[in-house]
Amino acid sequence: MKMNSPISPPARGYFLSRLGNIPSSNMGMRLLAVAFDWLLISLLLTLVLLLTFGQTWLLYQVSYADSALYLVVVAVPLAYFGGFWGLLGATPGKLLLSPWLE
């Protein structure tokens, strides 16, 4: 006897029907918000790399085998997105453009 559980997969075609309901009028504003967020992340990442490793390391002695570099490159975007979504519920790009996204 087969029972329906709350974990059962959705009906076939459920996700494809949901794709048609995405409003395309706000897509340009959403892309602008994402571009603003990535600009902030790249500036923040550059600042953290300069403070962590120093200017001479960044300009002359770049070693991609350094695990601290990977830690910084992964931790900064995670802290950015996690911090803003956790505290404010949206990233600064979306908060900046929120009047036009509604």
From TrEMBL:
It comes from Thiothrix lacustris. The keyword Thylakoid does not apply. Keywords: Membrane, Transmembrane, Transmembrane helix. It is a multi-pass membrane protein. It is found in: Membrane. InterPro entries: RDD. Residues 27-97 form the RDD domain. This is RDD family protein. The chain crosses the membrane at residues 31-53, 68-88. Pfam families: RDD. It comes from the Bacteria. The keyword Transmembrane applies.
